[in-house]
Each structure stands twice: as structure tokens, then as C-alpha cells.
Amino acid sequence: MPEVKISLRQLSILTALYTIGSAILIIPSSVANIAKQDAWIAALAGLGFGLLILALHHQLSRMYPGTNLLQMSEKLLGKWVGKTVNLLFLVTLFLGGPVTVLYDIGSFMIIQILPETPIQAILLLFGAIIVLGIRLGIEVLARSAELLFPWFLLLFLSMTVLLLSIVKWERAMPILEHGTGPIFPAVLSFLSIAYLPHIVLLMFYPSSVARPQDAPKAVYIGSLLGGGVLIIVIALTILVLGPDLAAKSAYPSYMLAQKINIGNFLQRIEAIMAVMWFITLFFRITLYMYAIVTGISQLFNIKNYQPLVLPIGWIMVSLAVFIYPNIPFKHDWDKRIWTPYIIIISIGLPLLLLGVHGVRNMFSKSPGKTS
Amino acid sequence: MKRISALILLNLAVSLLLSGCWSRRELNDLAIAVAAGVDKVGDRYRLSVQVAIPGQVASKKAGSSQAPATLYTAEGDTLFEAARRMTQISPRKIYFPHLRVFLIGESMARQGIAEILDFLLRDHEFRTDFFLVVTRGVTAEETLKIMTPLETIPANKLFNSLQTAAKAWSPSKAVTLDELINDLIKEGKHPVLTGLEISGDRNIGQTKENILNIYTPSQLQYSGLAVFKLDKLIGWLDEKDSRGYRFLIGEVKSSVGFERCKNQGKVVLEILKTNTKTKGKIVDSRPEMDIKVYVEANVASVECRGLDLTKPETITELETRMEEKVTGLLESVIAKVQKEYKVDIFGFGEVLRRSHPRVWAKMKEDWNEYYFPNLKTHIQVDYTIRRNGTTGNSFLNELKE
Which family does the record assign (chain A) (predicted)? Predict the structure, then answer.
């Protein structure tokens, strides 16, 4: 594989966009559904727990700088066990990650903006730029992230400022009406979309970063930035729409953008605001796919991952059409299957690897060196 | 060969990308709905949609023969079905995102409006920024037939006049879909909607004759607030009570009030700013409400003699009397709603829920039947008169007979 390096700044931006990802569209309603007006508390707590999860990931990456997650598990678990684990990881992640996020953007488009367009047309076009992006490599992706991030920030900040005039603080009252009970499941729901999937980032950092020793810091900065954006979005949906409507709406952030009306003049700009999540969802899917494609090429010892991109992209697009039979199934899936799954691979797997590492260290004096 | 295939590929790509969206609808394919109204006929919904005719609106020439808007009406077992059935009479598919007002017939409102609201919220073509209004004493369909002067499209008249009335004259309330639904879902608050009447001769109102002369025989006029128990209309508040209601929920931006002088005549005050703070408390395990209203006003006109506006005492006295008057206004509307309707439209339950969530959880079952009708309210009005306009003492004082 050609040697690619991205800068720390680029890593931060990629992490931020990855964190915001599809969460900006779906997180407000799923968190408000559980925690009602305390959703923002859940989001704040989620940020805290998210940093703990990142710390765990960094712990793992620090042991073997220069290797990615799959190489690590192969090294620690042995060739065959490692490869089996990796294959399972990649296949399930493929089905649960990029395919479902692509489904999200497709269903958003046909529910809110283009109801009569076949979903295939949207998925195909969106899939095409993803395939193009991955073929060009992580460096190009990182640079385009750098270019697009200011636009995202501009849209996000203008949305926030334009909505400030209709914020009503009493919508967030009373604080902790139902006690702290519902906060925990809400935090879990927040984490499962926002921070637990960060394990995927271990596929290209620190090994593809220019200064690997500083990579964790860059990831922290990006995660904090992304988490901050999500907290603001959740708080705005509560303060502008109210917890009930926020929980009922399929896409509360889009509904927020619809509420913008400055003097009957600056209004109906929701389609422009939607560009915001086109950017973040693009990077979310692309980073997932990049991790999966490079992972598969490693698994089968293929030198260049590029020939794999198009076929896997095709599979992704076609699967995204029917991955969920209907929307309630998706909600049920997110709650009952995705959350435990992502906990297993994002907390269970690193803990397993760290454990094996510790056990191995006990038996051999020399700890594993980089390959 | 390679060149040619590359060209073909490029062509394919371009035609795929540049063909635009599937769901595109050009401006001349749209029938832009500006107002819609729904009535119930037996078990069926009767949907009337006022569609703007762009050519008539754009032309500056007076005396064009066609009306600026047209009305399509269709019946259906469901609202959505009625909307689609409308294509049988409309040459174009109705386009709803530019809807300004949605009228609900009174008789339909009495039977419940929740079912139609779900459609409005779920369908992607409806935004949430139009106003919902109940037509009082008439069907929604009939209301939409009235021609209006000044704003050629009646829907625009309805929208603007409700917005202005809610701002400058307090009894009307502009309610959008999301606010209404929030009120419906919220425990401890029941919704209200503004009523709309046809005044004058309806038969003339439906013809162009209505706007031919300076005098308009028939007008669309907002009047009173409709009180809902959940989604069913149960009664009306008159203008005075409606004002009191809007004072209580702190929505009055500007309005006019007066006080009788000691002699004959009145002092008129223009309200510039109001602020209402409601706090719930528990006294002897019973809920009570502390309502603090702050009003800032100017003297707008003096219609009596002997009022000495140069003295601060006069102002103080006027303030005290206005405070009593506003307190009376608020007390009377609370008492009326408590006695007659027994539904908490003021959101007192909501206030209590915010400050005492645990107590509220116990009371919410019996709130409307027991706690709300017996709720004690302490109203404290702080009325401040700031300025008295461009003149000092009224010249009326100097008039000698």
C-alpha cells in the first residue's frame, strides 16, 4: 500500500466530521425520546463518557504505534484467530455502518425533499462520490475535509444564530423531571451513534498520521468539537421545538432549519441547511468504507486496496436500498441490536486486546515491538 | 476507440447528472395553495383549497376580469383522499408549502381536530409556519369564498391581518401548527385558536361586487378565541376575555386600554410592553399561582376635563386604577374559564409541572376536574405610565363654556 500521511489538523477535522456524521440528523429525536427535556444533560454526560472511550482506544493505539486495529488483533490473537475476528468485524461493521448511514441519507431525501424520486437514484449518486473519494485515498479525503469544514461551520453557526430569537428556555424545564433514571439509556443512545463508532478511526490513526505521538490529542480535539456541535443541536431542538415535537419528528434538525424566519425575509432556507449534513454524512460513510476496504485488503494481503473500492461500493449501494424493511424496524434495530453490537466492538474488543497484551507481557520479558 | 468510449461514458455521466431532480415541479405546473379549510359533512371531510392565480396577482392593471384566486372543493373519507380527489377538478396538482392559513370549520372543531393535525404534521408538503384558525358560525368553505380588498388574495389578508392584530391589538392569537401540537401533547395546557367571522352580507361578499366600491359590504374579521378541551372545541372567549387570556400567558405586545375619569370621559392608554411571570406554589398541599404582570404604557389620549397631567400624583393615581382594572380583567377571565369550561388553557398545570414536578405527577389526573377549577390565583399588576405623548395637559381643560 502506498505510504500516506495526513496532518494532525486534518485528523482533527476528519474526526469532528465523523463524530457529527449521521448523528446530527437522527440523534436529537432518539435522545429526546428517552430523556425528554433533559436530552442536553444526556448529551453532556455522553461527551464525558465518550472521552473515556477514546482514552481506552488511545491506550490501545499507544502499545503499537504504526499498526492499525486489524494488524494489532492479528498480532495479539495469532494469525488465524486474529483474521477470523477481523473478518467478522469488517463484515458486521460494513452492514451496520456505511450501509445504514447511506440508508439514512436516502430516506431523509425521499421523506423530506424528493418524495417521488426513486431512492436508488439518490443512493447511486451519493455512492458514486464516496467510491471516488475512497479511490483517491485518505490524503485527498483529508484535504477535502479541510476545504469543506469551514462551510459546515458557517452553515452551522448561522443556523444557531438565526434560531436564537425563537429559543424559549422554559421548554427545558423542569430539569430532571423523571429523575436521573432515563438519563443513562439516553447517554447510551447518544454514545452508540456519536462516540462508540470511533473505534473505526483506529484503522488509520496513528499509523497514517504524520506525527503519531500527537495523534490522540488531535482526535480529542476533533471529538470535542464534534460533540460540542451535537450538544448544541440537541439543545436547540429542545429549546425551539420542545421535547415532545423533537421526539416525534423524524428529522428534528431539518425541522429546526424550517423554523428559521427572520422578518418574513430570511426564511425557507432548510434546503441550504441540509448541505450541512450532506457534508458530515459523506465523511461518515467514507471513513467507514475506507476502514473496511483497507481492512479487507490487509486481511487477504492485497497490496493495493483500490480495485476493491468499486465492487464493495456497489454492494453498499444495493444493500442500502433494502437493509431495513421499514422505519420502525430501523428504530428497533438501533436500540436493540446496534447498541450492544457497537459496545462489543468498541469496548469489548479493545479490552480483549489489552488483556491479551497484558497476559503476553507477563510471560515474555520483551513487549511486542512494531513490525 | 478508447477516445470514443470515453466520450460516450462522459455523455452518459453528464446526462445522468444534469437531468435534475426526479421530483421537480416547475412553477407553471403548480397550483399554489394559499389557504385551506376543512369541514365535516357527515363522516366525510370536505376540503376547500384556495389557490392563487399567479397571472392575476402579478398584473398591475385594474379591472382584470378574473378573480385573483380560485377555490377547489372536494370530499373524501380522509383528508388526504380529498386532497388527491381535487385533481379531478384542478388542472394542476395542489402544492401546499406556501399555505398561509388553515381554517377549521366550527362544527368540525367541536368534533375534534386531532386526526387532521396528524396529516398536516406527517405530510412533507406542509410546513409548520401557517396559522390555524377556527371559522365561527360559518363553514370554512364559505369563508374562503369572500373577496377582500387591499390584499387581493384573501389568504394573504387573513395571514397578515392575524399577524398584525396579534401584535397591535391583543385579543387575537396567531397559532402555528407546531405550537398547537405542543399545546395538545403537553400535560397541563389546553390549546386555544382564534375565531374568524364573516361580517356583513355573505352573498355580496362572494362576488366581485364586494371590492368594487370603497365600502366593502362583507369583511373577514377575527373575533374571540376558541377554547379547546384537548382537541375539541367547547366554547368561546369574547374579546375582553381573550385579552385577559393573552395578558395571562404574556403574549400581549401592544394594545389599548382606557380608564374612566372622575368627571365624564375617559383617559386612553397605549400599552407598549407587557411581561407576565407565573409561578406555582403549594400552600397546604393545594396548588396556588402567583401571577405578576408588568405593563408599560403611554397616555394616548385624554377625553375628559380636569385631569392634571403635570402632577406626578395624577399619574400615580391613574396607575393604581389601571392596576385594579387589569387585575379585574384577569380575574374575571380566570373565573369564567374555571367555572364554565373547566379546562386549563392558561397552562397553570404546565407552570406547576415545571416548578413542582413531583406534586404535579400526583395532581395531573384530576387537574381539570378538581384542582384547576379550585385553583387560587394571586394577581399582582404593576402598571407603569412612562410618557404622555406629544402634549402635556389636555387642551380640553381650557375649554370654557
Answer: Belongs to the amino acid-polyamine-organocation (APC) superfamily. Spore germination protein (SGP) (TC 2.A.3.9) family.
